Amino acid sequence: GGASGGSSTVAVVDLPPDDIRVIQCALIERGILHGEADGVWGPETREAITVYQRQQGIAVTGSIDMRTVSSLGVSGR
C-alpha cells in the first residue's frame, strides 16, 4: 500500500459504545485485542480490526464494515 493523503473515503466508525464493546469482546476472544472491552474506538481496537481483516483475507479497512461484522459473528441490531 502507498501513503494515503488524507482521503475521506475511509468509513468513519459511528457506533454506540455497546456495539463497540461487543466487537471488542469478539476480538478479545480471538486473542487479537488485548485488554478489556471498554466501548471506546481507539487505536488498539483499530489495529486489532486491521489484524483480524488481514487474517481473514477480507478487505483491510481498519474500520467496522458489514463484512467484518458478519465475519466476526456479530450481528447488527
Describe this entry's structure for a reader.
This protein is 44% helix and 0% strand. The protein is globular. The longest helix has 14 residues, at 43-56. The protein has helices at residues 17-29, 43-56, 66-72. Mean pLDDT is 84; it is low at 4-10. By secondary structure, the protein is mainly alpha-helical. The protein is built from three helices and no strands. It starts with 16 loop residues before the first helix and ends in a 5-residue tail after the last helix.
> Structural class, judged by helices and strands?
mainly alpha
Largest sheet: none
Strand proportion: under 5%
Question: In DSSP terms, counting alpha (H) and pi (I) runs of 4 or more, how many helices?
Answer: 3
Could you spell the SSE succession in H and E letters?
A: HHH
- The end-to-end span amounts to 34 Å
What gyration radius follows from the Cα positions, in whole Å?
12 Å
Quick synopsis:
The protein is mainly α and 77 residues long. It has helices at residues 17-29, 43-56, 66-72.
What key phrases describe this protein's structure?
77 residues, 3 helices, mainly alpha
Question: What's the SSE blueprint?
Answer:
Elements: H1 17-29, H2 43-56, H3 66-72
